[in-house]
Amino acid sequence: MNVIIIGSGYVGLTTGSALAYIGHNVTLIDKDDDKIKCLNSGNVPIRERGLKELLNEARATIRFTSDWDDFDQQADVVIIAVGTPSKENGDADLTHVEEVAAIIGQRLSKGAYPVIVNKSTVPVGTARRVGSIIEQTLRRRGIFQNVHVASNPEFLREGEALFDTFYPDRIVIGVESQAAGDVLRRLYQPLIAQDFIPPQGLPRPERFAEPTFFSTDQASAELIKYAANAFLAMKISFINEFANLAEKVGADIAEVAKGMGLDKRIGPRYLQAGIGWGGSCFGKDTRAILHTGRQYDCEMRLVQATIDSNERQREQVVRKLKEHMKALRGRTIGILGLSFKPNTDDLRDSPAIAIIRHLNELGAHVKAYDPMTMRKCQDAHPELFVEYCETAEDLFENCHAVVLATELEEFRHLPYDKLGKKMKRRFLLDGRNVLDESALTQAGFIYRGIGRCYESWEEESSSQAAQGL
Ligand code: UGA
């Protein structure tokens, strides 16, 4: 099939390259000339596992352009995958989506009936709005025809977007007509049937069950995306609240999550307690759905609580540091990891940044080490007072405490024994519960995770003091 994708962000680019790989002819249009030049020269403007290799394999069937004259009138499907950032009031900003709809209306020729697909995360009703913008623009050109607009939300995790595209749990489409549904079923058939040869580096998981192709109405499909993200965020906040309680009552949250997750109705994923969720999606989408709720007089109390609880979770780190060290002014705190999750250089709404900001306010001296994101952080957050370190050794030097904020693989294998000797005080706060507690304790650290129970702080501190640490 002939497919046009508009927008070469991580959704457009991964979807486009996957569709090209499974045999479609893809034209990817983006107004950003630099991105198109980068793609045409064989490079990839975003960090996404396996993308560069996949694009190389699919290069014969995908082309990149910033010129709308390349709009293919033979296209069967036009996918809108442009950004929908947050407005001040939490609402999704649809400027780019609406601009693109108007251009499609200017470009479509009479008798061309591609299915227009909204892949961007958009509020309920946007598919209809896109349809009416295109039809109005066509009418102004003397073309009187209806367009089919479908909602087709994405459920891609940054960093794992290709894996999630090739091996999804479900493909959701929201359509008004059987014909549009049939076109999209044909588009995704290789993924539904799983009869493609897996790309290099992205093998099909063992016992992978064929994804469900779920066809529903437009509004429901649009709401599914928000409901899914809000639910995942709520699941994490839920386990984080129980982690806080576990600390008080002497339970271990990892055990609690395991025991809960064994119930198939709950499932084990997104129950990893820590310093809270971040990234460009959960925060934006939960705020957007709260805004929709307000617009329609529907209180979304659980979503509001999820956001509030996440804010508090980030503060837990600072609370624990205060508990351990009392005044933080003049103390040196090291932060291991800056991105909102591992294997990405994305700093958007990262808990680490919120923690640094809070520590700055309290007058602590903050050092940070993250091999992937340090430069980016320096540029993106000039307002933060941070001493960026080139190595983990530099980070630990003279610290009164170190906080692990992002669970990079590298951090699991640092020579903590050696690093601890460089610290003023061996206190390690593992904000993701990934380090080996007994090894760290043996190396003389006071180790604290999230949602675990320990002897009283005073007892350990005095035992450390007795050991001369
Ligand atoms: C999220 C969703 O998982 C995707 O399904 C969705 O398509 C995407 O948003 C989007 O709307 O575009 P992403 O933002 O890439 O994907 O991030 P996740 O991998 O889901 O992680 C989000 C945050 O939750 C991270 O800060 C992570 O550290 C945290 N997290 C995740 C936990 O604290 N505990 C967990 O158990 C899981």
- The fourth-level CATH homologous superfamily of the domain at 2-216 is NAD(P)-binding Rossmann-like Domain
Bound molecules: uridine-5'-diphosphate-glucuronic acid
Largest sheet: 6 strands, parallel
CATH class of the domain at 2-216: Alpha Beta
The rough form would be described as elongated
Total strands: the figure is 14
User: Can you name the CATH architecture of the domain at 2-216?
Assistant: 3-Layer(aba) Sandwich
CATH topology-level name of the domain at 2-216: Rossmann fold
Number of helices: 18
Low-pLDDT ranges: none
Proportion of strand residues:
5-15%
The CA-CA distance between the termini, in Å, is 67 Å
Which oligomerization state do the chains in this entry correspond to?
Answer: single chain
What class, by secondary structure content? alpha/beta
- Widest sheet, order of strands: 3-2-1-4-5-6
Helix content: 40-55%
Mean pLDDT: 95
Folded structure, characterized:
It is a single chain. This protein has 18 helices and 14 strands. With 469 residues, it is of the alpha/beta class. Among the domains are: 2-216, Rossmann fold (3-Layer(aba) Sandwich), CATH 3.40.50.720; 226-307, N-(1-d-carboxylethyl)-l-norvaline Dehydrogenase, domain 2 (Orthogonal Bundle). The strands form three sheets. It has a six-stranded parallel beta sheet with strand order 3-2-1-4-5-6, with helices on both faces. Bound molecules: uridine-5'-diphosphate-glucuronic acid (UGA).
How is this structure best summarized?
It contains 18 helices and 14 strands. The chain has 469 residues and is α/β, with parallel strands linked by helices.
